[in-house]
Amino acid sequence: MNDQVRLGVVGVGVQGRLYAELVSTGRAPSLRLSALCSANPKSRSHQDHAATAAGLGVPLFTDYIEMLDSGEVDAVVITVPHFEHPRFAAEAIERGVHVLLEKPAGIYGKQVTRMLDVAAEHPQTTLAMMFNQRANPLFVDLKSMIDSGEFGALRRTSWLLTHWWRPDAYYASSSWRASWGGEGGGVLVNQAPHQLDLWQWLCGAPLRCFARLRFGFRRDIPAEDEVSASLEFPGEASGVFVTCTNDLVGTDRLELSFDKARVLVEDSLRMTIHRFVDDEREIARSISAEDAALVPSGAFDRSVFFSSETREYTSAWGEQHSLLLDNFGKHILDGTPLIAPAEEGLTSVRLANAMHLSAWTGQDIDLTTFDDDLYLAELNKLIEAEGRFPTRA
Predict the structure, then answer these.
(1) Are 91 and 219 members of one domain?
(2) 64 close to 39: Cβ distance less than 8 angstroms
(3) Prediction pTM value
């Protein structure tokens, strides 16, 4: 390696083609596209993959291990089916090939932990996550403000995320979609992982979870298409997460209430910040009895205690992915800190697992002592009941 890392793209679907295009057109300057891998030479799309590779001037491998051992790649970005993410990552890491892994890190905590153990045995090899929303300028700004302490302690947060509408034909397009054995779940493992990651990135790793899920509620699928979860975050902060794939209109609304501010994020592109003149508790203590009597009727003017600011953001398709790709390459070349280390991928996987497990058992789940073996046993019961895929270990 000189001033660029040679990158292989594993899986030439929608995401794989995007990454290949971004790197080949110079939008991640620290990387150079050097290979593609399409594992099934008999697939209907394989000729298209071959044409893509030829057009980009790179070899097309049909065997992943052969590509890793070819000497053509220093690093790979992995976009294979979710269940295979940890295994493919471990194969590369054991060969000293750096890995950028598409979300999620895996389907269940046990397989992600095994992958992280392999990575720990090879500390010179980079393992990172493609959590591209962490490069959304809105969330970059919000994370910076939270970490600065200017908002004070988090009290409460909610994310209403119902804009993932998917029609029946989407689920019918592949037998693995929203199945327990083929995909590992529904909206929590396919559409929502980015927001689960962002939520814990902004608020801290959740401590407890209680969830109600609907399985095949408004879609003919075995897995969840509707989720309502209540969480406990560090510092006694509470949280509510609602998501689904059956809301035709849909909403993306994140609220965060702090001691000294209230933040509203809409559509992940607009942020309204209310900054308080003091800690809300001190403001409440300062109100006289006469003024307090005016509060219920709305006659008391609370606006004197806060200022408001609204910020609008734009984020072109592919821009966030380019930043994550380039950050990955720069980390390999000069140690630039990773935006999304792979260790943090385990938190969002376990959060989705906890929501599943709470719904299956009807119990409150402690995430600080999460039982990966219990989760896998319950998941395998559902896979066996489907009868279409092998159970997992």
Answers:
(1) no
(2) yes
(3) 0.95
List the single range of 73-77, 171-175, 286-290, 355-359 with lowest mean pLDDT: 171-175
> Do 43 and 117 belong together in one domain?
yes
Same domain, 103 and 179: no
CA distances from 360 to 184, 210, 272, 302, 374 (A): 14, 11, 37, 44, 11
For residues 73 and 189, membership in a common domain is answered with: no
Residues 102 and 83: their CA atoms lie apart, in Å, by 12
* pLDDT band with cut points at 50, 70 and 90 for residue 42: low
Give the CA angle between residues 207, 208, 212 to the nearest 5°. Answer: 145
The DSSP line for 14-75 is: HHHHHHHHHHHTTSSTTEEEEEEE-S-TTSTTHHHHHHHHHHHT--EES-HHHHHHTTS-SE
Q: Can you read off the two tokens belonging to residue 359? A: 């719904």
How far CA 305 is from CA of 71, 220, 276, 345, in Å, comes to: 63, 50, 6, 39
- Does residue 85 share a domain with residue 176? no
Average pLDDT for 237-266:
98
pLDDT band at 53 (very low <50, low <70, confident <90, very high): confident
